[in-house]
Amino acid sequence: MADVCEKCGGSGWIIVEKDGLSGADRCECMIASRSRRIEESANIPPLYGNTSFESFRFPEDNPIASKGLEKVWLEVRAFAREYPCGDKLGLLLVGDTGTGKTHLAVSALRHLISRGFEGLFFDYQNLLEKIRSGYDANSGSSDREAYQTALDTDILMLDDLGAHRVTDWVEDTVTSILTYRCNNRKALIATTNLSDPEAGGLIMERNAAGQTRIHKTLAEQIGRRARSRLFEMCRVVMMPKVEDYRVRRPR
Q1: What pLDDT score was predicted for residue 247?
Q2: What percent of the chain has pLDDT over 70?
Q3: Sheet containing 155-159: which strands, arranged edge to edge?
């Protein structure tokens, strides 16, 4: 038999007094129960099921990197705590593979869910594949379930934005999703490994051996229209260069 909440006796409501008047308010147990249900259907991968701001690990042997990550950590946590205040409801984390972008993004998503907001996690490439797989070549129509979900959910998280071969269909689909969410003030949390020179990213980089590496840009992979919408709706957070987070993350 489940434990009965001592505050509300299992009713889900508590009596509150204010200015000499009595009223009913939702009990904390109902809020927590709703948050659990939302998180169970949020499509968060098991690898990130217990991810939180508290479990984020800073590099102990690199004070400069640790300071840079602490600044990013504070900025993402502030976004999750202050939402939906501010002129931009979205968050875009930009940086190299293994810098902890997904950990921080999921931490923000889970924190928002704990506050009662509904949200969904999607791997960017997987979402596009779901939308494309619903296409019915015989009727020329599309099963709009995945697409509609990406439009309608309160908070959409897209991990690894731009990690898909760019085509006209991809560009049009991504632009459509971002435009709808921007116009309807629906939040987006996204991560990307792609460079953006207008945000301070490098297009060309030399390694220690003197070899030149050309970076693909965000605009090249999702299109300039989608990139414009993304920056219109999101706070942009640049990740510092640090050791691969998957190596230093606690097991």
Answers
A1: 53
A2: 74
A3: 119-123, 155-159, 187-192, 90-94, 234-238
pLDDT of residue 86: 78
CB 5 within 8 A of CB 29: yes
In whole angstroms, give the CA distance from residue 149 to residue 31: 23
Nearest to 39 by CA among 122, 121, 156: 121
How far is CA 189 from each of CA 45, 89, 123, 208, 246, rounded to the nearest angstrom? Answer: 16, 9, 12, 34, 21
- Joined together, the tokens standing for residue 134 give 């619903």
DSSP assignment, residue 204?
E
Spatial separation of the C-alpha atoms in residues 26 and 137, rounded to whole Å: 49
Query: pLDDT tens-digit profile of 85-144?
Result: 878 999 999 998 889 999 999 999 999 999 889 999 999 999 998 888 876 555 444 556
Check whether the bond before 63 is cis (ω within 30° of 0): no
User: CA geometry: angle at 52 spanning 88 and 26, to 5°?
Assistant: 75
Non-local (6+) Cβ contacts of 103 within 8 A are 48, 51, 55, 56, 245, 249
Give the Å distances, CA to CA, from 57 to 60, 99, 182, 186.
9, 11, 33, 30
Residue 157 CA: distances (Å) to CA of 11, 12, 30, 91, 160: 34, 30, 25, 9, 10
User: What's the Cα-to-Cα distance from 28 to each of 11, 33, 109, 110, 116, rounded to whole Å?
Assistant: 11, 9, 20, 17, 11
Q: Are 221 and 43 in contact (CB under 8 A)?
A: no
Helix, coil or strand: residue 157: strand
Beta-ladder partners of 155: 119, 187
